[in-house]
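pinging the channel bc i need a second pair of eyes. not urgent but kinda urgent?? the chain im working w is below, pasted from the shared doc
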Amino acid sequence: MKGEKTKKINDLTARLEHTQEMLHVSEDKYRQLVENADCIILRMAKDGKIAFFNEFAQKFFGYTEQEILGQNIIGTILPEKDSGGRQSKELIKDIKQHPERYTTHENEMVCKDGRRVWVAWANKAIHDEQRHTTEILCVGHDITERKHMEKQLHLLAAAVRNSNDAITILDLEGNIISWNLGAERIYGYSEAEAMKMHISRIIPGHKQEEMLGLTERVLQGESVECFETQRLTKKNRILDISLTATWLNDEAGRPFAMTTTERDITERRCLEKEILDITERERELIGQEMHDGMGQVLTGMAVMSKGLALKLKDSSSQERKDALTIAQLANKAIAQTRDLAKMLYPVDLETGGLVSALRTLASNAGKTMGATCRFRCGKSVSVINLVEAKQIYRIVQEAITNAIRHGKAKNINIKLRLTKKGMILSVENDGLDFPKVSPHQTGVGLKIMQYRAHLIGGTLTIRKGDKGGTLITCIFPKGR
């Protein structure tokens, strides 16, 4: 019996030793797991002092184990106040009293070098046998970069929301899915109203086709910036708009929405129109003065020179020839002055209409600027509106001037015809090819032509001609 009891005691001792050995192995594995974990692991005593601080936490916050253990969490890795001004003492107090509320929590921390960081915590209360909380086990992950991104997104969202420009987002069908305060102010529709609308609601009828073309351009990857068009408000007021558009792509690179930024330039357009009107009046005044003033002076000079030649009939033949030459030069200057006056003040617009004025312009341009200029138009072409006729006339005039002065053109062809799309004006020359430049680098002349086209509800394009040179095309509605 004694031998059996001794054997049992030995067996129990062996098992106990084995169990203790396994516990040591498990404890070592657990410690290695905790120490090598790629996250912050710490234990905080009930009084707020740090009881455990793993290796990752030491590297992250910059403290050694000797520096941090036994130190209060406040004033070391937890700032006394966060960036929002909240006292950390109140936070720790609440965690101690209600640990169940903080099983997951995000808050601002501070490293030894003073750098502020954000950590997402998973917390678990550790209890004694009486179920009293003795410590809190905290496992944290660095979310500083995410927080910074969230802040940037928040600022960006606020900027978009409060922008004075209308910023909208449309789905692939053209339905409005985002509508900022600027859009509400410009167009008069609330966000709730806009979110039920299709974009066509705010596009005037004569601009609907243009919007389809714009969408195609953006889909093809073209950058659309400072594109000038028109929009319609809730009160049916037409606004002049400068628009920028781009597609938003998903992770696979597929477009899923289009965003536009639209600026109301109606007031600017009114000022520009007023400046053009003033310029037009001054141009007409100069033309009248050249015709009535300078023309009369030159006419008097020609008459006097001719009279002088008659008086010198019996004098030196050379003196008589000089007088006749002066008379001839004066008559030539009179003709040129009248041609220039007609270009500055196209009387034909008011008397014979646009077709007659363009025919005269082509003829005079050829005489005064040294290029062959031809004008053709269809029989059914008729532009009655004087304001519209003036804008078309000036577009052609500017196109001719650019072609000869800058393009060194020798031949210019002007055509005006009526099609299903509306009236089409084209000015083609055989000069230098129009250089490809960005919209921000276009010359003043081209901008003025585009603006004049816009004034009559049209669009103007400029490109290389089929046979070289430059082709300018203006399409505008019939019967405006």
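so The first strand starts at residue 40 and ends at 45. and Confidence is low (pLDDT under 50) at residues 437-441. — does that match what u expected or am i reading it wrong
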